[in-house]
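Narrative of activities, Objective 1.

The group set out to show that a structural description can be obtained from nothing but a protein's sequence at a throughput compatible with the screening campaign. Below is one input-output pair from the validation batch, recorded exactly as produced.
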Amino acid sequence: MSVGPLVVEVLLTFLVAAVVLCRYGNWYRHHLVVTVSVLVAWYFSMLIVFILPLDVSNTIYENCLQDLKEQTIVKPSNAALPDGDGGDGGNYTLMAADLTIEGVDGTNITSLNITTTTTTTTPPAPQVGCLKPWSFVPAGVFPVFWRVVYWTSQFLTW
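Output recorded for this entry:
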């Protein structure tokens, strides 16, 4: 989880641009300044294509982190307890009854006490998190990178 994938892609893109220039350009006949400027122009143009997926995965991860930070779950204090029928998002209700009969003399019951205890449990919420991409690059690298690549490409391809 470092800048390793970015460095590998930058170097491989340079190799691809150099091989393409060597194969399709007649770099022996041209002046050195022309050859180097074409190499840099092609290299930066190819960088845009190859580095864009890294930037997209980085942006999705950073947006996910921002969304998690902004999420708040507020449960109103006067909410009714769920009935545990399965349609309440996984809450379970456990009911227990305690029956006490006193004063049984033949067929008459003089007092009857029934105590009911209700316990509601909610399973822990699933851990919602953001999976860090294997190609994660620290914040601030891509904006500088894109400025250099964009403006150099504009200058060299005009």
